[in-house]
Design goal:
The protein is α/β, with parallel strands linked by helices. It has two domains: about 150 residues, NAD(P)-binding Rossmann-like Domain (Rossmann fold); about 110 residues, Dihydrodipicolinate Reductase, domain 2 (2-Layer Sandwich). Helices cover about 35% and strands about 25% of the residues. The chain contains nine helices and twelve strands. Strands 3-2-1-4-5-6-12 form a seven-stranded parallel sheet, sandwiched between helices. Strands 8-9-7-10-11 form a five-stranded mixed sheet, with helices on one face. Strand 4, helix 4 and strand 5 form a beta-alpha-beta unit. The protein is elongated, with a radius of gyration of 20 Å.
């Protein structure tokens, strides 16, 4: 029998980290072998699986990246944007694939991902949903097919605790639409509107963020033409969606060669 993939979870005690630990406890193809949290986290030293409600496994939450990730096959980083560069460097040093699902990433993280990709497979995505990966491609194709006569607006809604706006997924969708239209300058993207804004410029992509309640994630792309309107939407109904996407991505990375990948690559690999 093939040995299970050994996962290292960074941001292990966050909501997604605990959900992944709980889901992995019931699988035979992978298991959580390391759990990392920030050095000042009040629950350092707990058994991760027990904290997730899945019974003890002996994987204790620690704060040492280099020691903690030794021997893992894939690192799943769901921590904080400020830690992303260090996690990427540690994953590369450990020879482990990297899946980063953190949004609001700084330039230093982007550079670290490129360094890591020379040695290990790297997948960076603001959304782990397979459906969103399909949505991104649909938006690109629609923008290319309909052309500049169709105005593009993106509306996203998330729970009240989300700290960044617009969502990384909304920005990814805007980039996809921009790519479909031959790429526009970032300055042509409009983040909300207020006051006397004047007539909507041709070619502009509007992005609007809504926050409230416990919404997991809603994204709607509107292509408004002179005589019709096309709307393409994705609604996340459970955090389990993102957990399954993370585990699917981790299994993909465990078999992949060094380089940069997307969730579309994960889907194509079946």
């Amino acid at each position: 029998m093939t040995a299970p993939i050994r996962l290292g979870l960074v941001g292990a005690l966050g909501r997604m980290g605990l959900e992944i630990a709980r889901a992995a406890a019931g699988r035979v193809d992978l298991r959580v072998a390391a759990a990392i949290e920030r050095a000042d986290h009040p629950e350092l030293g707990v058994d991760l699986a027990s904290r997730a409600g899945a019974g003890p496994t002996g994987v204790i939450v620690g704060a040492d990246l280099s020691r903690g990730l030794a021997g893992v096959n894939v690192v799943v980083d769901l921590s904080h944007p400020s830690a992303a560069a260090a996690v990427a460097d540690a994953a590369a040093a450990a020879g482990a694939g990297l899946l980063c699902g953190t949004t609001g990433l700084p330039d230093a993280a982007t550079a670290a991902f490129e360094r890591a990709a020379a040695a290990v497979p790297v997948l960076v995505t603001p959304n782990l949903s397979p459906g969103v990966a399909v949505l991104v491609e649909l938006v690109r194709r629609a923008a290319a097919a309909l052309g500049p006569e169709y105005d593009i607006e993106i509306v996203e809604m998330h729970h009240r605790r989300k700290v960044d706006a617009p969502s990384g997924t909304a920005l990814m969708l805007a980039g996809s639409a921009s790519s479909g239209r031959g790429r526009i300058a970032p300055s042509e993207m409009c983040f909300g509107r207020s006051g006397r804004t004047g007539e909507r410029p041709s070619g502009q992509i509007g992005i609007h963020a809504v926050r409230g309640g416990s919404v997991f994630g809603d994204h709607r792309v509107i292509l408004a033409g002179p005589h019709e309107r096309l709307e393409i939407a994705h609604v996340a109904e459970s955090r389990a969606l993102f957990v399954e996407g993370a585990l699917r991505g981790a299994l993909f990375l465990s078999r992949a060669r060094p380089g940069r990948y997307t969730m579309a690559d994960v889907l194509e690999a079946k």
